[in-house]
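dumping this here so i dont lose it
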């Protein structure tokens, strides 16, 4: 009995912990992190100081004061107004950044939509449809993007008819016109009370969101589906439409008209914009399609069997069961694809689209100098935009991750 008691007491005896500053793991971790940060900081400080001294020795100015200097050129395509000889280099930077964001956001939306469609077709049971989708993916994914841009620009858009022989995409109404100078379309001219229609649209969107949530909760509780598609379409069409008609239809259109050698009025998109948008969309949609295909295949086949067993059609099975479970596998590579879309938009310099690289890091650099500042600002822009995309998609990815027990 005494032996057993002594054994039991020895089991509960814990060795006394001693704190060793030099060998403690936590101390070493913090110390080495601090050491690395200090080394990187010193290197950046040394590099910046050495560069500034060398530039000063050669009589070259440094700093960001040039952003307030008047620029003697303008952009052929811009989303905000600017006058050569009045606008500054800082405004040129904003114009280039907006042009880059504009075409990148459109390319991301279109390539993601097209990529999801092609990815689902890759899994079709129809042999011809699946092979056509496979051919699309293999051809456009394995061809360099720059080659595709040059092909569309030289081989397609440069061969479009001249202005007087424009292609009418509106079926004879002469509203949507395409020629070798670009794409021409009507431009809205809002009236005084149009804001009421805009408010009605916002209210309709909020009502649709609330309706879909109510329908989902109702289906979870009772199992009965509610036709949200028809109801949502009715809200989005009739509510703003009634307000628009009641307020006297306060919206006019500026229609492009042929005067002389070109169209006047309306809005236009240059060929370089159309080529870059088409190339980015087609190229990155091929990668998105493979991400979607891999994500769908990662879902257990039992989920499809369970969906079919409760009577879901193939379309609703894909949208309600398969795709939501595939999203955790699709989002991580999709982050890189969206970031690549932003960065690949800089290839616009090959066809003359005035993006940030073309306007700021080429034309502005040739006129104003300040190479280090211009390159640093351009790099910082792409870095910040990509980090924001990564942050937002990572937040969404955490929300759609499956909870494991």
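and the seq i came up w/
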């Amino acid at each position: 009995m005494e032996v057993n008691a002594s054994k039991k007491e020895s089991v509960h005896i814990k060795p006394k912990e001693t704190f060793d500053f030099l060998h403690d793991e936590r101390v070493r971790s913090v110390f080495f992190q601090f050491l690395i940060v200090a080394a990187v900081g010193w290197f950046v400080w040394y590099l910046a100081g050495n560069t500034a001294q060398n530039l000063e020795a050669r009589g070259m100015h440094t700093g960001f004061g040039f952003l307030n200097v008047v620029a003697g050129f303008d952009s052929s395509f811009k989303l905000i107004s600017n006058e050569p000889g009045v606008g500054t280099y800082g405004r040129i930077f904003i114009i280039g950044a907006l042009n880059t964001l504009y075409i990148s956001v459109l390319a991301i939306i279109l390539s993601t939509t097209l990529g999801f469609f092609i990815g689902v077709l890759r899994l079709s049971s129809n042999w011809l449809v699946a092979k056509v989708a496979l051919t699309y993916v293999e051809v456009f994914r394995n061809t360099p993007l720059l080659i595709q841009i040059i092909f569309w620009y030289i081989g397609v858009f440069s061969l479009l008819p001249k202005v007087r022989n424009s292609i009418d995409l509106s079926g004879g109404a002469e509203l949507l016109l395409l020629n070798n100078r670009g794409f021409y379309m009507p431009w809205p001219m809002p009236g005084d009370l149009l804001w009421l229609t805009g408010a009605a649209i916002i209210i309709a969107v909020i009502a649709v969101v609330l309706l879909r949530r109510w329908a989902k909760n109702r289906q979870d509780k009772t199992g009965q589906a509610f036709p949200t598609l028809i109801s949502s379409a009715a809200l989005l069409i009739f509510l703003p439409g009634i307000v628009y008609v009641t307020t006297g239809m306060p919206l006019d259109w500026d229609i492009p008209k042929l005067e002389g050698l070109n169209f006047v009025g309306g809005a236009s998109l240059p060929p370089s914009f159309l080529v870059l948008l088409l190339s980015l969309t087609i190229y990155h949609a091929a990668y998105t399609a493979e991400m979607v295909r891999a994500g769908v295949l990662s879902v257990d086949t039992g989920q499809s069997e369970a969906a079919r067993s409760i009577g879901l059609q193939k379309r609703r099975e894909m949208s309600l069961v398969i795709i939501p479970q595939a999203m955790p596998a699709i989002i991580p590579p999709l982050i890189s694809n969206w970031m690549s879309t932003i960065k690949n938009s800089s290839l616009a310099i090959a066809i003359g689209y005035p993006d940030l690289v073309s306007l700021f890091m080429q034309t502005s650099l040739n006129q104003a100098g300040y190479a280090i500042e211009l390159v640093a600002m351009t790099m910082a822009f792409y870095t910040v935009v990509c980090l924001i995309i990564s942050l937002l998609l990572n937040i969404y990815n955490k929300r759609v991750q499956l909870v494991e027990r």
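The chain has a mean pLDDT of 84.
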